[in-house]
């Protein structure tokens, strides 16, 4: 099982779209750990703003790329505010 997910950081007021084969809770812990990269700039990432399961990691990556291509905050937010 794989997931496409959206995180949110209030500190940065930014979303992060990603894909993972890991458990989502484990993945969030790694995002909130101090590291190099975009999510390493904050440690308040909230997961499960949105999570979509897929049979394969390749399908999750395709969905991640699709969402990232939107480049629209409102459109990304519409994924989790309509629920």
Portion of residues in helices? 25-40%
Extended strand count:
3
Indicate the structural class: alpha+beta
- Strand order, biggest sheet? 2-1-3
CATH topology: GIY-YIG endonuclease
**Assembly state:** single chain
**Biggest sheet, open or closed, and with what strands and sense?**
3 strands, antiparallel
Overall mean pLDDT score?
A: 88
Order of helices and strands: EEHEHH
Overall 3D form: globular
Estimate nothing, just give the exact number of structural domains: 1
Q: Write the CATH architecture name.
A: 3-Layer(aba) Sandwich
Number of helices: 3
| Share of β-strand residues | 25-35%
Rg, nearest Å = 12 Å
Distance between the termini: 22 Å
What would the keywords be for this entry?
single chain; 83 residues; alpha+beta; GIY-YIG endonuclease; three-stranded antiparallel sheet; 3 strands; 39% helix; globular
């Amino acid at each position: 099982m794989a997931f496409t997910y959206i995180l949110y950081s209030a500190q940065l007021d930014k979303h992060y779209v990603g894909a993972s084969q890991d458990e989502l809770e484990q993945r969030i812990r790694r995002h909130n750990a101090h590291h190099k990269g975009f999510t390493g700039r904050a440690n308040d990432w909230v997961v499960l703003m949105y999570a979509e399961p897929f049979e394969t990691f390749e399908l999750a990556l395709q969905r991640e790329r699709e969402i990232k291509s939107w480049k629209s905050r409102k459109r990304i937010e519409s994924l989790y505010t309509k629920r």
